[in-house]
Amino acid sequence: MNKKELINKICHDTMIHKRQVSDVLDCVMDTISYEVSEGREVKLNDFGKFYNFRTKAKIGRNVIKNTSMIIEPYNQVKFKAFDKLKQQINK
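The structure corresponding to this sequence follows.
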């Protein structure tokens, strides 16, 4: 399901206009992105949490040139599903 399909599904289920649903969904995604980029967790009850994870520096290998290089640490967004979501998926 992509963003457009999600908006259409929400509109159908709630009878709210597409533009309003789109604006709210954009705001939710922007808020999650901002909070995670600031290093804070975003927890959604019965769904899961988004959080920022910093990788460690590591040594990588370029097999074509046969050289080693250092891969700098970087931030990743992680998602951890809560039990209720896991149970629903595994029915």
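The chain has a mean pLDDT of 94.
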